[in-house]
## 1
Amino acid sequence: MNLEKLNEIAQAARRKRAGLKNKVCVCAGAGCLSSGALEVLDATQKAVREAGLEKDVQVVPVGCMGACNQGPLVKMEAEDTVYQKVAAGRAGQIVEKHLRNRSLVDDLLLFSDSGAKEKASRELPFYKRQVKVVLENCGEINPEEIEDYIAHDGYRALEKVLTSMSREEVIGELKESGLRGRGGAGFPAGLKWEMVYKYVSDEKYVICNGDEGDPGAFMDRSVLEGDPHRILEGMAIAGYAVGANKGYAYVRGEYPLAIKRLEIAIKQAKKLGLLGQRIFETDFNFDVEVRIGAGAFVCGEETALIASIEGKRGVPRPRPPYPAESGLRGKPTLINNVETFANIAPVLRRGADWFKSIGTPKSPGTKVFALAGKIANTGLIEVPMGMTLREILFDIGGGIPGGKRFKAAQTGGPSGGCIPEQHLDVRVDYESLVGLGSIMGSGGLIVMDESSCMVDVARYFTEFCMDESCGKCIPCRVGTTQLHHLLSKICNGQGTMQDLELLEELAPYVKEASLCGLGQNAPNPLISTLRYFRDEYLAHIVDKKCPAGVCKTASLTGVR
Amino acid sequence: MSFTFQHAAQFTEVQASDPRIAKIGAAIRQYQRRQDSLIQILHLAQEIFGYLPVNVLRYIGRELKIPPSRVYGVVTFYHFFSLKPKAEHSVVVCTGTACYVKGAQSILDHLERKFGIRPGMVTPDNKVGLEQARCLGACGLAPAVVIDDKVVAKATPEEISAMIQNKVGAAS
Ligand SMILES: Cc1cc2nc3c(=O)[nH]c(=O)nc-3n(C[C@H](O)[C@H](O)[C@H](O)COP(=O)(O)O)c2cc1C
Ligand code: FES
């Protein structure tokens, strides 16, 4: 493989596209698949054949288009028109009306149920404010065809890096870009790469963290399913920069489609010589193997994940030494999140200055969020860092359905916190969310309205951490159990002011004494709900009432 | 994990001639008997048998030269692995955050009232097993329930209980 051949493949794929009058993209992301996208794909292909249009129109499955709530989605590429809630039975009509008669199927237009009439989806408020870097190909290309990825500048960054940049230059560019790890903590990616690069060892590893254990988050899944080659390209560039020849992609077992697409992608890349020996006719060799998680939240923590790849129980160990020094099999190991790797190729292809032009000075680039909960447009979005929470939730997310009132947005999952209404104008970046007692987390953004009880929310997350505690260290194992016990008591209407005091005394101990991030962050939901919704705690304890009507126990009055 | 005599068959040695065992053996050789392939092999075994019988675990341990205690330790650490045969039909209710906010608990409450089952339990006739999941990644469609590998989006308690009723009725 060399640049010429890469160009040839890209051109051939583009010629094929140019010879067509239209391309019909049927969303085959997980959300749309579960609402029947495969039947829609079949029906559309059949309708195109029957209309005699198969020479002019190609029908392809693509990755997540974002508006998961409205699925199955079908996009007409030439006009950028997206149809929603397409039942297989209506495929014929779309082909007839849109492709043959060049008119719109009005009642199926995306968001038409809320009055939208835009022909081009990019004009819709949902898409207009988004900036796509990580998701640039998602919903555009067929994730099971490497040629499609190559036609969209795929593997160009890898070619550029291997043939014209030194390892130091790659790391320098990444440091310059200011890209921060998207797995939650926001550690600068360039610094981490440099650390691994500096350790001398006969063997090093690159690991992609696709465990995505935060319940309510599906960003990494969508990237893996919609654009798997992007991850492989990012990992290969990382391998070159830090001096590793072997990569592992650790994907949670709950994501069979992501695993399948990644495995297909690896096979295709190997066949074209984009993975394997002497990539781009250089001395660089790199291979990627998929490892399937087996359902344990703590395995998202890097040292636990490494233990799991080694075939052991996924229990964390104290750091230092960090994986950069001693990771998989005791060797220097670079571990980054899926979305971090997804940013690598664009950064190196288009340069650090371009990347810095997006987002804020301290948090450059974009962030992918999974919008869920009590919000009109649930789905997957990508926005520049620094956009306000209000813009994200109301302009893009479409606000709270059913005329209900916004109560809080939850970020960072069981390690994060809640952001109440008075802080809706916060600019979303790493520092400002920490300032509000939450964290950026990996990108799960869950909206709660007045029907959620914040004490019960705290109880819910604490229960999650209690169940998922690996049991190795006592502050986490026993601490989360005690916190949960106290919270349950309050939810049940049996809590006392003394219990509240005890909660507040215990929380910092659990934070400070736990071995890994799971325990260290487990009290966060509790602390943050106490900070903003203390009145709800008091209502449960003093008035024996659950204001939201969620906690339904005999000793509580005022229950609906 | 307690075993009754009903599980006694699991304690007889596996037969190398059993094609299912042969398949596992082949995979072990493909991984060059590397001990760090244990979890991959367990995934395969569970796919083949539907759960992890004790004699199969012993076989895997022997082949990889890993003591049974460690194999057992790994199997019980991960939620994915099961030491018990699965019920005929599986119902998985997602209790991840998005589904929790959208009312997954009311589905679980309803099923408990109607069928007397809580997550981790099976109906007395062994037809339907109920599990809960920590986010299926279908949060945009919350609350999500998976019935025999099919995702039911925006599920309601009544809908799910009717579907279960159907399974119980159809199978008996
Ligand atoms: C309990 C726990 C769970 C975690 N889960 C994940 C996860 O699901 N995905 C992820 O990328 N990082 C997760 N992390 C963070 C990783 O340990 C690690 O910091 C991250 O993968 C580094 O990648 P980044 O620098 O690209 O962000 C978790 C950390 C903890 C303490
Ligand atoms: S929380 Fe249920 S699918 Fe994500």
## 2
Amino acid sequence: MLLINCPWCGPRNETEYHYGGQAHVAYPETPADLTDEQWAEYVFYRDNPKGPFAERWVHSTGCRRWFNVLRDTVNYEVLAVYRLDEPRPALPQAGGNR
Amino acid sequence: MAEPTIDARVSPLAHLEERMRAATVTGARGVTLTEWPFLTMVNMRVDPASEAADRIGKALGAPLPRQCGDTSTSGPHTVLWLGPDEWLVLSQAEVTAVTSELREALGGDPGSVVDVSANRTTLELSGPAARQVLEKGCPLDLHPRSFAPGRAVSTTVGPIAVLLWQVDDGPTYRLFPRSSFADYLARWLIDAMSEYRGPEVP
Ligand SMILES: [Zn+2]
């Protein structure tokens, strides 16, 4: 069970949240100009790193707000939590043993 | 136009009223479950830093709570924090009066005031064993060191999303499930209450 720190509600059980996939996937600037391959890349292709990964979560049974989580995919440690209008933070020193 | 209107509302727990009453446990491990149907509930969204938020606070008689878990009470109204720009106004006043007062306070500014009285119903769980009953299925720490009268949060009880508000030290809690989940939650609570009839198993 992950304990995730909602930016507004504080620490809550993972069961109160839903996962929203990779964060910082920007909508294409000129969608009309995209080839099928570029669309497929935008819609379906995601990174799958071993280590820190920025991803979106929603506090679905709490305040129902979306926010970003920096999570280590190896040990599931939550390294940072930040609002959608905040930049991806630099990795904290304490985060994991990588 | 003076035709009397017939109140044809049926609460989502009307059919369980007798079951809930029969589930009452008395004594040192007592706990009771009751429904308070048709409470006035108004959902409100506004930028908390705006002048409109100040006007709404004045109209309600108390500033809007700014932190998760906070509530504010004034006269017939209690305001629960739902999100950084969202609140639920519970009131003993009539719903059209509350919504029109809030809409007037909001004026033309960005925001919304919506009557959501039919969205949820209200269950009251109270008695010395009430906290133990909730602790069987609520992931939050309800111990007095972290939860107390006047606190209200959105969370889950069993698999059901509820707003949970502690009213007094009894303790008395009010749970606000969505209407279509109320039947399941009431049955879940009745089941969870049943062990307190007997002596405590060491
Ligand atoms: Zn939250």
